[in-house]
Every structure is written in C-alpha cells, then in structure tokens.
Specification:
Helix content is 45%, strand content 14%. The protein has 577 residues and is an alpha/beta fold. It has 23 helices and 13 strands. Helix 21 crosses helix 23. A six-stranded mixed beta sheet has the order 6-10-9-11-8-7.
Amino acid sequence: MDRVTKAYLDAFRAEQSIEKLSDSDAFELFADYCVISDSYDDEFNVTDVHTGGGDDLGIDGIGVIVNGSLINSTEDMEGLLKVNGSLDVTFCFIQAKTSSTFAGEQIMTFFDGVDEFFSETPSLPMNDSVVLARNLMQSIYDNSLRFRRAKPQCRLSYVTTGQWSSDQYLEAKVAKRVAQLKTTGLFSEVAFHPMGADEVHASYLRSKNSVTTEFSFPSKVLLPDIAGVTESYLGVISAPEFIKIVSDSAGNIRKSLFNDNVRDFQEYDNDVNADIQRTLADEAAKGRFVVLNNGITIVARELSTTRDKVAITDYQIVNGCQTSHVLFDQKEHLTEQVQVPLKIVATQDEDVVNSIVTATNRQTQVTNEDLYALGAFAKKLEKFLSSYNNDQRLYYERRSKQYNAVSGIKKVRIITKSQQIRSFAAMFLDEPHRSISYYADLQTQVGSRIFNDGHKLDPYYVSAYAHFKLEFLFRNGPVPVKYKPARYHLLMALRYIAGGTEMPALSANRIEKYCAAICEVLWDNTKATDAFMRAADAVERALNDTPLALDIAKTRSFTDSLKNALGVQPNHSSSRP
C-alpha cells in the first residue's frame, strides 16, 4: 500500500473509530465508503453496507439506493414507494483488495458473486448481510411495474491499491461478463469500474468536500444589496445547464439538494408535474416554459463568478423540487430552447436561509409543524448537541455534508436526521420495531410526537449519544455484532436499565434529571458496556432460545417480549408529549 493511500486509510480509521481493525478489513470498509459516497451525498453507517466475511459471494459491500435514499430493508423500500409512487433503483457492488494488481481471476469471481446474487435459484451459501440485501432486491423486482424511468442500474466497483492499466484480454473478459448481466433483462445499465489508488484518493477527497458545481449563467442580473446576503442573482438558465446543477458524478439526481423542501417529488399524479411534462414534450410549447414556470430558488453558502460562469458550493434547492425532478426525468428531450427561471442567493446567515426556506415553502400546501421541524427545532437541536464538551459532543447534520469541510470531527459523531428520529423513537417512544424498518411512518409524526416544540432537548441528545456509543461498542468489540438486528431494542432497554421505568413527560422539567442519570452511564465506557450487555441479556431472554433475526426484531410482539423481560408492562398507547 502506497504512503498516500495508507495516510487516507488511517484518517478514515480515526473518523470511523475502527483503529483496531487490520489493514485488509479496514480497507474493505474504506472502499465501501468511497464507492457509495460517489453515488450518495448524505452521511451513512458504512458497516450497514459491508458484507465482507465468510459466505459473502466474493462481495465486500452492497449498497441499494432507492429514490435517492440508501436503504437496507424491504420496509424502507415500501415506505419510499408509498411516498413517491415509483422506484428509481441503483445497485452498487464493491470488492476490495489491498494488493496492487487487478487479478483477472478475482475479478471473474466478483462477477460470479453478482450473478449468484441475482440468480432465481442460488446455490452458494450467503451470510446474513448478503441475504438481507438479496431479500430487498427481490422485493424491488416484485414491484417492477413501479419502476419510474427505467429498470435498475447495476454498478460493480473493483478496488485495489494499484493502478488500472489497459489489458485487452482482461478488458474483453470484463466486457463479456457485463454483456451477460445485461442479457438477464434485469437492468437498464451495467457498468464495471476498476478503481486504483488514484481513483480511491479522488473519491475520498470528494467525500470530504461540500458539493461544488460550475455552470454557465449568462442571462442574469445582480440584485441590489440585501442585509445578510453576500450576493444574489436573478435570471434564466438553459435546461441542459441546469441539469449540471442537480446531477452527481454518476449521472443521477442529487436527492440531498432537496433536503430543505418539505415535500419530496410527487410524481406525475400531481397535476402540475403532469403539465410540466406535457409542456416539455411539446415542441411548440417547450419554448414557452420560461413564462409558464415559477422557477427555481437556490441558496448557496459560497458563490463565485467569472464572466458567464458561476460556481456554487454547499447549496440547496429550496424551491422548485417538482420542476427540478421533471426536468431531470426529461433531460434527454431538453434543448437550449428550454429556459428555466433561476434565483441564486449566497449567504452564510442561517436566519436568512431559514426565512427563505419558510417563505418559499409557504407557496406549497405544508403545515407549520413541517416548517418548524425543518427550521427552528433543527437549529436548536444542532446547537444543543454541539454544546457538550470533548468526548460528550455530537454534531447534528441539518444539511448534507454540513461538516465535511470542518477538520477534527469524527464521522461517527455526526448524527443525521434519520438516525436522530430512529434512535429517539426507539428509546423514548418505545418503538424500536418501527425504527428498524418503518422510517416513513415515523416521519409522519414529526411535529407531533417527534421534534415537538414543547419537548425538552435532553432526550434527543441522550438517544443520539446512545446510538453513537452503541455503534462504537459494536465496532470495537465489547458488544457482539450479532445483536445489530436489535440495535434499537438495545437503546430502549438501556433507557429502562439506566433511567428506570418511570419516565417523566418529554416536556416536563423532570425529564432533564432523568436523562442526566442515563448520561452518567453512557459517558463512562465501563458502565455503558455493562448496561448494553445487560440489555443484550434481556434480548436473549425475550428471544427464548429463538435465533435473532431482522424479521423477528421488526415486530411489535418482540418489543413487548423485551419489555416483559425487563419487567415493564407493554403499553401500546402513544407516549406523553
């Protein structure tokens, strides 16, 4: 392994708290992280996509990206299907080798494993992680009538520490295997990506930088000085140039750009979207698009201009989610004739950002709770989590890659919105079964049972820190990884063990003292390990000699069994606000 790759790998180890792993095991996770990060902007738990180990089909990582979200369960797919009405799927497969060569035999074994993964009659043994991914794959194809634009894409990345050189014989063998996968009829596209040291370095650096895009924007005017705004422009941009703004390096739409939108893409059962699609499909009408559409608003943290060129960094599309998606869907039909109204605002002032988000989203049918969850509550939570000192501090990520450019922050201490919602629901709402696989259901409770204005912030910190601590203990050995399917049940159990069964209301002052007792356990590695192992013992009692599996953990009955094992009476009524 060359010096630069070793330095990057060591930095990755520190970020992910996996210093004890061997070079080969750590490099597998490093490769998984680099490959998935090229197709997925948000933070993610790299161990959730890692499949390496025994019975892994020669595949070290599997990432399934559905409608822009990295998921690992059938229930998450069903939730996205319910929200979006369709499926846009990419399968990512990774094989990593610390050797400096691209061995043809090992590459063919990699293809064999992917063939077996998609086979209707597999014959090779598979570990639990591969089986979980394969079950998700089968559920996706069971809903193939709901594929939005095309069949899924399949990407195979073979990662080494060397350099890929042109080998006609090996390239011919790879092309043959790619063609064989295409003949299955399962994919719209199959791509093989050999990644050597240079490609890995570039991928890792991209993952650490905020998204930056340069595009041509000649038809613009500079708006007058505005308090809190660095500079802002209003104008029109050609549709092909706009596609550059919303596309990632793999050619997919950047779903993370729309995090500040209350509503996700509503597909074509939305009358407005259907009208936009018809306009773009009509050669006579598409030239009028610029006067028929309200346009798109982008808020960027950094902006620079050079003549007609504009570069924006760390940006969000805060208005125009529906228009952006329809334009991306119709990108093959777009020409310079289609002009898009565009407003770009550059600001570092979070109050300005929140006011723009609120004002632009008021133009759609949204609730005050939705807007509060996006703005004020998230901002308070971010400040609260980062107010703790040293090893007790966490970082709530309100925007994709918000902390990428900040040095000294370990990735494992960054808490995403999904992680916060899941851990809070598991620990303080007693719904670990929903946290595992029913995230879409939990999102509907934002503003009421979750991210409620009246809630104290302490339970959110405690649940986030418990999530961080448990993942740390999984990665460093004290808590066996076999309990990962019940990770959210362990969070619930820890609350009862460390805090007691009598939990004050989430809005009461007494909840602060209750949470402080749990923190006293979590902040001490010895006490935390002991408490989580006691929680694991309770899980074993709840299983009653039944092997732990995800299908069991995601049921309410298992949650009830665990509460019985903890000496707690199950209660299916909603938790107190």
